[in-house]
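Protocol step 4 of 5: obtain the predicted structure for the target chain.
Materials: sequence only (see below). No template structures provided, no constraints applied. The aim of this step is simply to have a reference model before the mutagenesis design in step 5. Sequence pasted as it appears in the construct record:
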Amino acid sequence: MSRVCKDTSARGLRLRGHYLMVDRSRLGKGLALSLLAVLVGCGQQDLPPPSPPAVTVTQPVQSDVREYGIFTGIARAVESVEIRARVAGTLEKVSFEPSQLVKTGDMLFVIEREQYQAARDEALAYLKSAEAELARAESDLQRLQRAVATSAVSESDVDLAQAFEWSKMDHLRVAGS
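Step 4 output (structure tokens):
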């Protein structure tokens, strides 16, 4: 057993300003065992030489090897286009696949027809109504022109009918466009 002692009169090994006291009986036993191990290990023994390692040998084969590499990256198209609808609506059908080559004039989408069919029907009804109003205004103008000849109506009534007819012509022109 070893212990640290601060007493300078004690005998032992000095380590970092302290004297280390060593039990001499244990030290002697440890030295004896170490010496015995060295003597036993240094003895001459005839050991057989090691056997050579097993090696397999084959003939070389000549063949084509496909060279390839694995790389990390991002692929982008050389040309691309952004497609925007000119009208609002719900898509009924998409007529192309992503990354498919398309040509100018190809149909890309089909938009739901109900909304636009209703707007078309409304415009046609407005056109028919404008045509009927114009026909009535022309008829009234002709009637008033005949009546002014007999002084049954005033000239101002005829002028008013003429202005009404022109107004209906403009309505018809707007409805037709």
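Step 4 remarks: The chain has three helices and five strands. The radius of gyration is 57 Å.
Proceed to step 5.
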